[in-house]
Design brief:
It is a single chain. With about 200 residues, the protein is mainly α. The chain is built from ten helices and two strands, in the order ααααααααβααβ. It has a two-stranded antiparallel ribbon. The longest helix is centred in the first third of the chain and has 22 residues. The protein is elongated, with a radius of gyration of 19 Å. It starts with 7 loop residues before the first helix and ends with a strand.
Length: about 200
């Protein structure tokens, strides 16, 4: 997969928008304030993003980009299933417990009662895209005939749920509690070992 050239203006807008959303919340941030934070002209801002909703969706997508690239690059022929899932889990854990990702999650949960579209926007721009990719990978494994995964939708959901669990909730409730690199590595190892025994059934 070839990465698209980085647009410095777009990156500056995303960086400025992320800072503003996290510092002031969604409702209190205008497109004009985001343009000032970037800093770019309002015309440049609207050339890239036609609304605040579109901008928030892009911020969320940007956070998920590394994980989605990891998943897109893996095929059933590459590295073996366990190694592939370990790569996905490692990238997912780096995202799930990243400071900005946790902060965006808190922001969306806090503001969704007044802006219901934010919850749907968040889900479609991040979790849904990631789940769809993993479901597709599991369907490839079934089609290849090497594994039997009875319910790829449930299997994908269970995979990411195991990486979150109680730890993610505790991280959301405390801004100081985030796992170390060693703790994340141990979490990935434990989830993969359990998952390979309990969820994936290789055909003999």
């Amino acid at each position: 997969m070839t990465s698209e050239p980085i647009d410095p203006k777009r990156q500056a807008i995303l960086s400025g928008a992320t800072r503003m959303f996290l510092a002031h919340g969604y409702r209190n941030v205008s497109m004009e304030k985001i343009a000032q934070a970037a800093p770019v002209s309002k015309a440049t801002l609207y050339n890239h993003f036609d609304s605040k909703n579109a901008l928030l969706a892009a911020v969320i997508s940007s956070l998920c980009e590394s994980l989605l690239q990891t998943m897109t690059q893996l095929t059933i022929e590459s590295n073996g299933v366990e190694n592939n899932l370990t790569q996905i889990a490692t990238s997912a854990v780096d995202l799930i417990y990243a400071e900005d990702a946790l902060a965006i999650y808190r922001l969306v949960v806090a503001e969704s009662p007044d802006f219901p579209e934010l919850g749907q926007l968040f889900y479609q721009s991040g979790p849904q895209a990631v789940l769809t990719q993993l479901e597709g990978y599991f369907r490839q494994l079934n089609a290849d005939g090497s594994y039997h995964i009875a319910d790829p939708v449930f299997a994908a959901d269970a995979f990411f749920s195991m990486l979150k669990g109680d730890l993610h909730l505790r991280c959301l409730l405390s801004k100081t509690l985030r796992p170390s690199a060693d703790e994340k590595k141990r979490l990935v190892s434990q989830v993969i070992a359990f998952y390979m025994r309990g969820m994936l059934h290789a055909k003999s």
